Amino acid sequence: MSELLEQIATCIERGKVNAASPYPPDMRGQEGADELVKKAIEQGVPAGDILSQAMIVGMGRIGKKFSNNEVFVPDVLMAAKAMQAGMNHLRPFFDSGEAVHKGTFIIGTVQGDLHDIGKNLVAMVMEGGGFKVIDLGVDVSAEKFAQAVKDNPGASVGLSALLTTTMVNMEKTVKLLKEQAPDTKVVVGGAPLTQEFANKIGADAYSPDPQGALDYLTAAVS
Amino acid sequence: MAMTGIERIGNILQRKPVDRIGLYEHFWGDTCRKWTDEGHLREGESLEDHFGFDLSECGAFNMVADLDFTPEVVEETEETQLIRDGNGALLRRHKLHDATPEHVDFTVRERTVWEEFAKPRLVADRRRINFEAYRAARDAARAHERFFFWAGVNVFELMSYLCGHEYMLMGMAVDPDWIKDMVSTYSRLNVDLMEILFAEEGAPEGVWFYDDLGFKQRPFISPDMYREIIQPGHKRTFDYAKSRGLPVVLHSCGFVAPLIPGMLEAGIDGLQVIEVKAGMDLLQLHKDFGDRLSFIGGTDVRVLYSNDRDRIEAELCGKIPVVKEGYGYVLHTDHSVPDQVEYASYRYFVDRGLELGQY
Fold this sequence. Notes:
Helix content of chain A is 55%, strand content 10%. Chain A is of the alpha/beta class. Chain A has a five-stranded parallel sheet with strand order 2-1-3-4-5, with helices on both faces. Chain B is globular, with a radius of gyration of 20 Å. The two termini of chain B are 13 Å apart. In chain B, 51% of the residues are buried. The interface between A and B is large, with 36 and 43 residues.
């Protein structure tokens, strides 16, 4: 049993989506996350175990390697794709309550800013880390973030900005979220941001990479 | 006697003695409008003329796949437009201020569509070249004795316009030969178009490529992947410039320090923009590569928009006396100057920076 879970974790860490995928070259022809998660379910492994003991483990490994500059964006994208392939089999178990998310994470790029790749990477790693992710997209107003929190009580929020010109909208968003729901955890990130700026605008945390956001919120919700 | 911009930048890119460091800058469009509205610039006055920049550049190529496609607005709000372009890409652009567009969707996501839709169209065609713009920009530069760069976009960024970062980067993992084919096609097209333009209008003083390869604190791809997939395209375009005796400057946003050895192998003479907020450290780069590479940028624009003269002074005094050593530096911020920067702050940055940059 644990061997199968380890195989799933490895497939996600290495970005092995399914048997047909030629990536990574040294796993060509082998089963991927798609087939192995299906197999685990068929063997009766609880969905929660597949999630927490295999998939989150695999995503966690790649996230840490990314933080340490041991791997690069293509590796994380492929890991997220493998994670998605496995998650497709687990979705019914989330609906039935057999598998549960760590929490809900609302993410978006602040108003005026249309950049999305950094935000997308954070969303992928958060989902891979066991959170239900609500991606509001780009150019998101403070009011839209606030409404999403109202609709999802207890959710955490991630705000992304790439432009120095839109950082000011981040401050406005944090202010509104904290006025409306003071306990909401808000994590900020993006190229021009610093810990100093995060402190100044009243965000709960700043992370320069996706894994930092996941680690912070995992600790915060546990 | 003071050197001209042509002499100064020519020497800086070879790290030969000059009278002072060079001067150049990029601005968000909103900044020029604001400073003009405030009366600091005359209506229609260029920032190059106003501040006396040493160089200018002109982008003259249209590298979109389907030249016959008229971009169509698919959706419009008060602030944004969703546009499908000739690459088959769906991009959301902000109407109220300058920004990189959101990548919404792409037609080219894998090899087959690339081979059927894009590749056959990416061939040299005179309609891709804006001869008049190039001629006018070159003449203006010559009139002010500025070093004139032809400017274009190189392979990584061109591919991201066609299929987006995510499909491109996953393609590098899953089907590297497809990405190598795109690199080869785009680099050949750039060279073919440069040959036509330079033969007809005359060569510039230098070649400037935009290719954003960096992310915050890391490049998008590993140095090995750069060498295997992107470097051949860089080398082909840089080799062409070198065959004409033209120096090459490469612009990249983000943290690209680990890629610099590979970029030097490909043939760059200068690196711009040295983005501090992404983790680039101008002083360390100067120490590590200053004997082989010139730098344009690397002063923290966040310091400028603090509009705090003491902080600007500290930023300049901490960097200029060091990086001017070796003659390979052009004063420039680490990206573009936004409209939060007051005119007086930028004016001080230029005046004090050049004062410190005298030899």
